[in-house]
Write a structure and sequence with these properties.
Butyryl-CoA Dehydrogenase, subunit A, domain 3; 4-stranded mixed sheet; Butyryl-CoA Dehydrogenase, subunit A, domain 2; alpha+beta; 373 residues; Butyryl-Coa Dehydrogenase, subunit A, domain 1
Length: 373
C-alpha cells in the first residue's frame, strides 16, 4: 500500500485545482447557490469537457477507465471550493449504483450519458423521519403486468431537483429493490426543501402511483439491500475525500488569517491559543487524509479491505471536517460568524456531510460489527 500519488495523479490534482480556482471560486459558489437551479451549469459542462464525470466509469461504457481513487482526488478538490455541482450525487451515488447492479443494457445506455455530463442521476433512499438503513424503506413497488407502480415519498434526495433520473429504493414483496425512474414521468413531483448547506441542495420526491416498466428495475428482485451495502461503502470513501478537501481549506484560511490579523501590536498567530488551534487542525487534516486515501486505495484495489477502511474514513473524516470548520470560525472571531465570510459555507457543508449516509456513531457501530467487536 503506497499513499504517494503517481505523477499522473498529481497532475490530475493540480489540473483540477487550477481549473476550479479559475472557474468556481467561492465568490461564484455564493452566486450559484442562491440561483433558481442551485447548480453551476456552465461549470458542469466544462467539467464534462475535461472528462471529470467519466473518471471511474469503465471505457466499455463510455468512461475514462480510471479507478475510484482518481474520482476521490477530483472530489477532494471539489470539496476545497464547496463547489455547487451534482458530482457526488450523479457520478458517485447514481453512477456507482448502476455499475454495481445494472444489466449490460442499462450500463451501456446510462453510464455513457453520465460520463459525458448529459445525464444526471440522484439516489433516492431516505424517507421523512427515517434513516439510511434499508430496513427503514417504506415506499412500495407493486407489480402490475409488465410494469411496477410506485407509491410513497423520498426525502433528503441530494441534488434531486436537478436530476434527470432517480435511483429509487422500494419494497418489492418481502425484499428491497432498486428502480431507475426518469424525473419527467407522470405522477412524480419534486420540490426543493430548505437545507443548511445551500451548496449541496436536497429535494422531496413524491410518487403518486408512478408507473415504470419492469426493465427499469436495477438488479434482481430483492437485491437492493446487498447493492446498497456495497454502494454505501464506496460513497463513504468518496465523501471522505470531499471532507478532507474542505477541512484542508479551513486550515489554510485559519493560518492565512492568523498571519494577517494583528491584535495588541502582533499577529494573532503568535499567541499560543491560536497556535494550538491551528496545530490541532493540522493533526486532524493529516489524519483524515490518511483515512480517506486508505479507503480510496481499498475502493480501487481491495474490496475486502474497504469493509474496514470505508467506515473508518467516514467516521473520522466527518468529525475532523466539522472540528476544523468550527475552529476556523473561532480563529476568525466575530467576522467568522457573519454571512459575508466563507467560513459558514464550510461549517454547513461539514455538518450535512457528517450526517449523510448516517452519522459517525452509526459508522463506528458498523465498523465494530464487521470486526466482530
Amino acid at each position: 500500500m503506497n499513499f504517494a500519488l503517481t505523477d499522473e495523479q498529481t497532475m490530475l490534482r493540480d489540473t483540477v485545482r487550477a481549473f476550479l480556482n479559475d472557474k468556481s471560486p467561492v465568490t461564484r459558489v455564493r452566486t450559484v447557490m442562491e440561483s433558481d437551479s442551485g447548480v453551476d451549469e456552465e461549470l458542469w459542462i466544462a467539467m464534462a469537457e475535461l472528462g471529470l464525470q467519466a473518471m471511474h466509469i469503465p471505457e466499455e461504457y463510455g468512461g475514462a477507465g480510471f479507478s475510484l481513487l482518481e474520482t476521490g482526488i477530483v472530489l477532494e478538490e471539489l470539496g476545497r471550493n464547496v463547489v455547487a455541482v451534482p458530482y457526488l450525487s450523479s457520478v458517485v451515488l447514481g453512477g456507482s449504483a448502476v455499475l454495481i447492479a445494472g444489466s449490460e443494457e442499462q450500463k451501456a445506455e446510462i453510464l455513457a450519458a453520465v460520463a459525458g455530463g448529459e445525464l444526471r442521476l440522484a439516489l433516492a433512499i431516505t424517507e421523512e423521519g427515517r434513516s439510511w438503513d434499508p430496513a427503514d424503506i417504506a415506499l412500495e413497488a407493486t407489480a402490475d403486468g409488465e410494469s411496477f407502480v410506485l407509491h410513497g415519498a423520498k426525502s433528503y434526495v441530494v441534488d434531486g431537483h436537478s436530476a434527470d433520473m432517480l435511483v429509487v429504493s422500494a419494497r418489492e414483496g418481502a425484499g428491497v429493490s432498486l428502480f431507475l425512474v426518469p424525473t419527467d414521468v407522470p405522477h412524480l413531483s419534486i420540490s426543493r426543501i430548505p437545507t443548511m448547506d445551500m451548496t449541496r441542495q436536497q429535494a422531496m420526491v413524491t410518487f403518486d402511483a408512478v408507473r415504470v416498466p419492469a426493465s427499469s428495475r436495477l438488479g434482481a428482485a430483492g437485491s437492493g439491500v446487498a447493492t446498497l451495502e456495497q454502494l454505501y461503502d464506496i460513497a463513504a470513501a468518496m465523501l471522505a475525500f470531499d471532507q478532507v478537501g474542505g477541512a484542508e481549506r479551513c486550515l489554510e484560511m485559519s493560518v492565512e488569517y492568523a498571519k494577517d490579523r494583528f491584535q495588541f501590536g502582533r499577529a494573532i498567530g503568535s499567541f499560543q491559543a491560536i497556535k494550538h488551534k491551528c496545530a490541532d487542525m493540522l493533526v486532524q487534516v493529516e489524519s483524515a487524509r490518511s483515512a480517506a486515501y486508505h479507503a480510496g486505495w481499498a475502493a480501487a484495489e481491495d474490496p475486502d479491505e474497504l469493509a474496514v477502511a470505508a467506515p473508518t474514513a467516514k467516521a473520522y473524516c466527518s468529525d475532523a471536517y466539522f472540528f476544523c470548520a468550527g475552529e476556523t470560525i473561532q480563529v476568525h472571531g466575530g467576522i467568522g460568524f457573519t454571512w459575508e465570510h466563507d467560513a459558514h459555507l464550510y461549517l454547513k457543508r461539514a455538518k450535512t456531510s457528517q450526517v449523510m449516509l448516517g452519522d459517525s456513531a452509526e459508522w463506528r457501530a458498523r465498523l465494530a460489527m464487521r470486526l466482530g467487536i
